[in-house]
Amino acid sequence: MCTTGTTGHEAACPGGARNARETTDRLLRAATRSGAHLIAEAALLVQGWAVLADPIAGAVYSTPAAAAADGVHAAADPYEHPHCLQRPAAGAVLVVAPGPTVPPEQAARVATTTAALLEVRGQRAAELRGEQMRLHTTLVGLLLAGHTTAVADTLGGNRLTHVTVYRLTGADVPTAHQVLWRAVRPSLAPHADACTLLGRLDGELVVAELHRGGDDGRVLRLVSRVSERHHLLAGMAGPLPLAEMPTAHSDAAAARHSATADRRIVPADAVGTSRLTPLLPTAPYARWAGSVLRPLTAAHQHLLLVWLRTGSKPRAATALGLSAGTVRARIRELSRLLRADLEDATVQAHLLLALRAPSPADGSGSEDGNGPARLETLPAGLLDTEAARSWARGLVGGLEPHLRIALTCWLGHHARTAPAAAELHVHRTTLANWLTQCAEHLAQNLGDATVRAEIHLALRATRTGPDDPAALPRRGGRTYRRL
């Protein structure tokens, strides 16, 4: 009989305490190696499987790998898996499924000890996390400053050639940063096939995934889950060559301005896409665009594209990492080069159309030999085709007269409600209600600057009368009368 002070299975046999110590020692040795080794040792001791499941990342560690899905399902719905033991561990859930011959006391001991060791590892990681996060932020800043070679050498030399950038904003960014850090488990180990950097810059979360030309989508899935859970809006750009990190950074910010609660992460290549450009005759469209954009460099075009996509100079400045004054000065200079008033809504819509055009197949830079094209007007045969008119009718057809007039006026004021309401002689709340009706009728996001540009073109293409405030139907004073 064992000495007093022992209970249960250990009291029944002197070997019980020895077996418990051996179990603890094996788990301790595994924990000093890695979390994966600890989970593997736990699965071996219970002669079954063990999974550490995270609500964002899914299965963090799993032994065997085939048990990952079962572990995640068991963590999500424990009542459906009564045979599994579950313990909270380091912000995740440890799920252990013992074999049929393992005593329940031993399985419970393994699960409890493993969870405690995972907590210790998590606390140690948390102590180092602040310093690691600052290092990541520094590396992201170096990439944006153009020191790509130095960063690439630090992370693995020439193995990392491309980057995909995510930019997330929202009230819960600090918490999302911590959650995403645990889910991604970033490492700066050299010679890896991929490396993820997470940094906090100017109140937003920047995720830079460095890889060799393509990614497996894992980081995208994690960013999507974090965005949904913490109500963040995100823009994504890439993959682009590592040297183009600043471009990817600004493109991600431009895309983020098109994100909504229904679509929380938007890729940059989806911003500005439309059903219109494929309908335009390719050759004249490309020649006109090439002629219009001839005075501009690639950097000029990128600045204009970000400005038009974000919808304002301050937002463009934030996306490009410049001051608002610098962006205003450069746009004034580009207005001079293009010989057009870039503050005009129609000119902006035409410019966005030109920036999205394919390159001229013959390299021609003029239109029909008549000199450089102008942004104020489009060439004949571009938007006045039956295909374009059909597109325009499908987009804005059916709008009631007062909604059409109000929408046209609002777009002419660059989506500013106060001056549009003043010109229409209606209250701002009335105009806001009309714009809501327009958005519902058109099934479009009027908060997206590129969507507004296309609606502006569609309204002009389908205009049959004066869409001006003077034609707004009324019934005395400011009272609106439906037709």
Topology of this structure?
Blueprint: H1 8-12, H2 15-33, H3 35-45, E1 49-54, E2 58-63, H4 68-76, E3 85-89, E4 92-97, H5 104-144, H6 148-155, E5 162-169, H7 173-184, E6 195-201, E7 204-211, H8 218-230, E8 233-241, H9 245-256, E9 265-267, H10 282-292, H11 298-310, H12 313-320, H13 324-338, H14 345-355, H15 386-396, H16 401-412, H17 417-424, H18 428-442, H19 449-461
Parallel strand pairs: 8-9
Antiparallel strand pairs: 1-2, 1-4, 3-4, 5-7, 5-8, 6-7
Helix pairs in contact: 2-3, 2-5, 3-5, 7-8, 9-11, 9-12, 10-14, 11-12, 12-13, 14-19, 15-19, 16-17, 16-18, 16-19, 17-18
Can you offer a commentary on this structure?
There is one protein chain. This protein is an alpha+beta fold. The chain folds into four domains: 8-124, Beta-Lactamase; 145-268, Ribosomal protein S10 (Alpha-Beta Plaits, 2-Layer Sandwich); 277-355, Orthogonal Bundle (Arc Repressor Mutant, subunit A); 386-471. The chain contains 19 helices and nine strands. Strand 8, helix 9 and strand 9 form a beta-alpha-beta unit. The longest helix has 41 residues, at 104-144. Mean pLDDT is 83; it is low at 1-14 and 363-369. This is PucR C-terminal helix-turn-helix domain-containing protein.
